[in-house]
Amino acid sequence: MRHIAIIGSGPAGYYTAEAAQKQWGDGVRIDVFDRLPVPYGLIRTGVAPDHQSIKGVSKRYEAVALSDNVRFIGNVTVGSDITIPELQELYDAVVLATGAPHDKALGLPGEDLANVYGSAAFVGWYNGHPQFVTLDPDLSGSTAVVIGNGNVALDVARILAKTRAEFTGSDIVTHALDVLDTSQLEKIVILGRRGPHQIAMTPKELGELGHLHRACPRVDPADLPEVDADALLEPGQRKSVNHLRSFADIAADVRSEKPIEIEFDFFAAPKAILGQDKVAGVEVERTRLEDGRAVGTGEIYTIPAGLVVACIGYQTSPIPGVPFEESAGRFANDEGRILPGLYCVGWARRGPSGTIGTNRPDGFSVVEKIGEDQPEHGSKAGCNGMDRLALERGLKIVRFRDWKKIEEAEIQRAREGAPREKFVHVDHMIDAAGKA
Ligand code: NAP
Question: Given ligand 1 and candidates 104, 152, 156, which is best to mutate, with the most ligand atoms within 8 Å of its CB?
């Protein structure tokens, strides 16, 4: 029997489990670990709460999780409850599918001021990640600055702009909904250090900004390249730029019908976050493109702002003893191989890029490597060994059937029109699982 431990129960983790099942069928036993008592990683705490159809992919992971040779080992933190060397003693292969849960730092003066957040924290807050429950952002200012031109920046701007009614059908947590209800925002500035042709925003997500009840996007026509230049873009990127062009065409009197403006400020690199204890503004330098790179022009201006959310990408959490590539914010690896018997997959392997589906071929690829490296079945203790160790250490493991109890309780306590009301404290999850 081949024994595999997968650390992380998000898309990368479950696609790897699925690939291992396809490859070895009954000849493999897989334990999928998570530090939370609930599975699905970014599907639960990263994907926007108003994008429920994307979250539907968790049904596919559930099918994998419910098969006889896959177990969910929730509420176990690798690195403290159990170490990587201990896992390697027990399993033939250990696959790190730990994602990239930490914010990349801006590296600017003032980024530690109050009401300045990274997107991992801010998104985690409105998605009910236990680590960020206490964030309590202050939305009493009239302007928010969202830094970055990727899909996460779009998610954050949209969530800040929506009315309570527009969250019907979403699973945004009530603590976030209540704070968003107090918002006095009149302007959300999306800051891009490069131009419209360099955005990392996908068309569907960008188009959503054109259909908000109380907010209207604004693009300065002067920032847009000549239309002919769009022909050089990939089709998806061209569609995104078409949205920007349509936003630029919205007449001022139409825009003024909505109380919130979402302004795209292109060629604008943040230089400093200003304020005493709390953020009061962002100092920005106008840029121009040189060989596709943003180069400062020396023109400096200030955007007064009471809230800043930096959506500039993520990095993986290092694990003691596991080689780490600081500059890329991921484990040092050669196509998923880290050390003998130790692998990585998904964002932990390649950094925070691509869609959820990108993780599927990633999972198949790492399983192929495991097969090449260890063609023989091992003689490790696997799941039984893990059970013995958990008993010795008194670990309060949450299994998939326990998660189903948590899920059932979350569905039962949902607000009207919402699919669930997530538990946001680990203790409450454990209670709901009947494991207290
Ligand atoms: P991203 O797509 O890599 O975008 C990061 C943005 O931050 C870029 O515009 C980048 O500009 C900018 N940036 C980086 N460092 C900066 C700095 N120091 N100062 C100013 N700007 C800076 O990252 P993301 O938005 O976090 O998304 C991560 C991944 O999740 C992506 O693959 C994304 O597509 C995916 N995602 C998908 C969805 C969806 O499909 N609905 C939703 C959310 C996330 P440069 O280009 O100039 O570097």
Answer: 152
Tell me if 354 CB under 6 Å of ligand 1: yes
Ligand 1 centre and the CA of 16: distance in Å? 25
Q: What is the pLDDT of residue 435?
A: 86
Q: 96 CA distance to ligand 1 centroid (A)?
A: 23
Q: Residue 414's pLDDT band (boundaries 50, 70, 90)?
A: very high
Q: How far is the CA of 166 from the centre of ligand 1 (A)?
A: 25
Report which of 353, 313, 288, 340 is spatially closest to residue 91, judged by C-alpha positions.
340
What are the pLDDT digits (tens) for 277-308? 999 999 999 999 999 999 999 999 999 999 99
For residues 189 and 303, the answer to whether their CB atoms sit within 8 Å is yes
Count of Cβ atoms closer than 10 Å to residue 158 Cβ = 22
**What angle separates helix 119-126 from helix 151-161, to the nearest 10 degrees?**
50
Q: How far is the CA of 409 from the centre of ligand 1 (A)?
A: 35
CA 199 to ligand 1 centroid distance, Å: 8
| Separation of CA 145 from chain center | 19
Residue 152 Cβ inside 6 Å of ligand 1? The answer reads yes
Closest atom of ligand 1 relative to the 353 alpha carbon: 32
Per-residue pLDDT, 379: 83
Asked whether residue 378 carries a pLDDT value surpassing 80, the answer given is no
Q: Is 198 in the pocket of ligand 1 (CB under 6 A)?
A: yes
**Domains of the chain and any CATH numbers:** 2-101+316-432 (3.40.50.720), 102-314 (3.50.50.60)
Note the pLDDT of residue 119: 98
Q: pTM score > 0.85 for this model? A: yes
Residue 104's pLDDT band (boundaries 50, 70, 90)?
Answer: very high
- Tell me the sheet residues that pair with 96: 7, 344
